[in-house]
TrEMBL record:
This is DnaJ homolog subfamily C member 8. Residues 124-144, 173-266 are annotated as: Disordered. GO terms for cellular component: nucleus. The keyword Magnesium does not apply. It holds the Pfam family DnaJ. Residues 221-238 have a biased composition (Basic residues). It comes from Cyprinus carpio carpio. Residues 173-184 have a biased composition (Basic and acidic residues). It is found in: Nucleus. The lineage of its organism: Eukaryota, Metazoa, Chordata, Craniata, Vertebrata.
Length: 266
């Protein structure tokens, strides 16, 4: 087991050496090549690893990180790529996002944790393969003992972990959004009956207020007027009323004296 662990550490160091050589080679890519790299098919997942975007070692210092960002941002900046402004803008945004992510201690730690998890997974797989080979009485040499194969295995597993985490994050956001929408709908359904009942109570109160207020147009006022009209039409005329109407309608009484006579009779 100790030998296996030592071999894994040596392989990992070799892996990092290879990575640095590749980074050194890629660091002199032209602007177009860098833009193509950052926008290649599957870039939405490749670019989840900020160290991959900036092509820098995870153990790089903050000063090295800053220097690398400046180099790469100049190469892909839209102002330097007037013949391909739109794609250059997207590439620049990817570089800027990766740099800002690594400036945040929490985000940087999460990225490093994913990279270390990818390495540990590959080492565990190698250990399991060796155990099985030993059990079968075969040489305990696995393909990942080749530094290049090991590097590719770690790279692929790391990218896979970044992608899985991103998918889970999106699923969680979608679930939370649906839960918020459902809660808003339930809240509206709960408040709708109360609003309806409140409207009915308000309507009944208005009718009651109008009835009891006794206003000119209220049902109660109309009923009072109707009753007064009925009593007036059915009341018998008095003797003096009949006499006064007869005198007022006759031509025998002077017009000037008609009003005063009626006043006296009443």
């Amino acid at each position: 087991m100790a030998a296996g662990g030592s071999g894994g550490d040596e392989a990992f160091q070799t892996f990092y050496t290879e990575v640095k050589q590749i980074e050194k080679r890629d660091s002199v890519l032209t602007s177009k090549q860098q833009i193509d790299r950052l926008l290649r098919p599957g870039a939405s997942y490749f670019n989840l690893n900020p160290f991959e975007v900036l092509q820098i070692d995870p153990d790089a210092t903050d000063e090295e990180l800053k220097k690398r960002f400046r180099q790469l941002s100049i190469l892909v900046h839209p102002d330097k790529n007037q013949d391909d402004v739109d794609r250059a803008q997207l590439a620049f945004e990817a570089v800027d996002k990766a740099y800002k992510m690594l400036l945040e201690p929490d985000h940087k730690k999460k990225a490093l944790d994913v990279i270390h998890a990818g390495k540990e997974y590959v080492e565990h797989t190698m250990s399991q393969k060796r155990k099985q080979l030993k059990k079968d009485g075969k040489p305990t040499v696995v393909e990942e003992d080749d530094p290049e194969v090991f590097r590719q295995a770690v790279y692929k597993q790391t990218m896979k972990l970044f992608a899985e985490l991103e998918i889970k994050r999106k699923e969680r956001e979608t679930k939370e959004m649906h839960e918020r929408d459902s809660e808003r709908k339930r809240s509206r359904r709960r408040s709708a009956p109360r609003e309806s009942e409140s409207g009915r109570r308000t309507s009944r109160r208005r009718v009651t207020d109008a009835w009891t207020a006794g206003g000119a147009s209220s049902p109660k006022a109309r009923l009072r007027r109707k009753r007064r009209t009925a009593r007036s039409s059915s009341r018998p005329k008095s003797r003096w009323s009949s006499a006064s109407e007869a005198l007022l309608s006759s031509d025998g009484l002077p017009s000037a004296n008609k009003r005063s006579f009626v006043d006296i009779m009443l």
